[in-house]
Amino acid sequence: MSLYRSVVWFTKGLREDTKSGCESASKDFVPHDLEVQVPGIVFLVTGGNSSIGKATALEIAKRDGTVHLVCRDQARAEDARGEIIRESGNQNIFLHIVDLSDPKKIWKFVENFKQEHKLHVLINNAGCMVNKRELTEDGLEKNAINTLGVYILTTGLISELEKEHDPRVITVSSGGMLVQKLNTNDLQCERTAFDGTTVYAQNKRQQVVLTERWAQGHPAIHFSSMHPGWADTSGVRHAMLGFHARFRDRLRSEAQGADRVLWLALSSAAAAQPSSRFFQDRKPVSTHLPLTRTSSSPAEEQLAQTFK
């Protein structure tokens, strides 16, 4: 990561991604965009038991949507489901325990889900930042949930989404991806010194590229990726201790981060935007910082085409 790229990203983040940036951007929001009810619409939210995922699921439930929570921890997931039902009064909240770092378990879940449920909106929210290089039982670097898990789940559910009216896929990426150029030469993070923050940012860049490729290959579905801003989530609190300690008073709330996801999942204004775009604060933005070399080469773009 170049010094220039880091400085530009940090300056941009302080101006746009903090709580004050959120409040400034909100002045231009159209209030009635989220004044909707969605009975009969089925949503699947990964990582729906905490932080932005839970806040998103709750707001969908309050609007009478059917919500499927895909979570890893049974106890925490059951607590979250109970809380969402109590606060929303909506009983149509369903729980699925799936380890999204295990490809075989994801495929099994997808096949079972397609046999029993329909789906209108997929929200890829779950993610992790493992700061030490560790491998799963399948020999995959553990941060693979951020890319491989999203890829398997999304591609497996595309056929179900295409059956419905106004299907959408929203992937919660991160502004951290702006400092990373797509790297297809070291997907297992074996060739350089391991840094969890860098790997996470690379994963988030990969998510954005996947979103663009899916949009090209499946025009019936509206695909989008987004940056929720610098939010005070459990992931930030546990995996980015120094960052959280320094900026916690300036971080957005989980509800503020979820608002941007909800807009993409629920509003007609979001559906009117071209598919494939990357969003921040309810508007499409560039996937590259000014004057930085983070665009993919033709060869890398060609490799990404295999993900469609």
TrEMBL record:
Residues 292-308 have a biased composition (Polar residues). This is Dehydrogenase/reductase 12. It comes from Theropithecus gelada (Gelada baboon). Transmembrane segments: none annotated. Pfam families: adh_short. It comes from the Eukaryota. Residues 289-308 are annotated as: Disordered.
